[in-house]
Design brief:
- This protein has 104 residues and is α+β, with helices and mostly antiparallel strands.
- It has one domain: Creatine Amidinohydrolase (Alpha-Beta Complex).
- The strands form two sheets. Strands 1-2-5-6 form a four-stranded antiparallel sheet, with no helix packed on it. Strands 3-4 form a two-stranded antiparallel sheet.
- The chain has one helix and six strands, in the order E-E-E-E-E-E-H.
- It is extended.
- The longest helix has 12 residues.
- It is 12% helix and 23% strand.
Length: 104
């Protein structure tokens, strides 16, 4: 609400049009068992927003999409974040992209 993108809590659904998680397995969107999580299950945690052009907010936010995805292994001792070492800030991501572009 502080950014002026949504005015009421339920407006979130305008820009958050997918779920927060899915199973990972042999297929990227593995259907899984959709029951109680068990050791060995791998799920995503992927909050995201997508603001299309023409959205009912300040145009400075149009055409922005942001999603941060983590892949979580369920273990007997609790969840393990398999993507914990993935870069999270602009500087680190850009440096990594510059480094990998040297190999193209």
């Amino acid at each position: 609400m502080a950014l002026g993108i949504i005015e009421k809590y339920y407006h979130v659904q305008r820009y958050f049009m997918h779920g927060t998680s899915h199973y990972l397995g042999l297929d990227v969107h593995d259907p899984g068992l959709h029951g109680k999580l068990q050791a060995g299950n791998v799920i995503t945690v992927e909050p995201g927003i997508y603001i299309p052009e023409g959205a009912d907010c300040d145009p400075k936010w149009w055409n922005i999409g942001i999603r941060i995805e983590d892949d979580i292994l369920i273990t007997l001792n609790g969840p393990e974040n398999l993507s914990a070492k993935a870069p999270r800030n602009i500087e680190t991501i850009e440096a990594l992209m510059k480094e990998t572009s040297k190999f193209e």
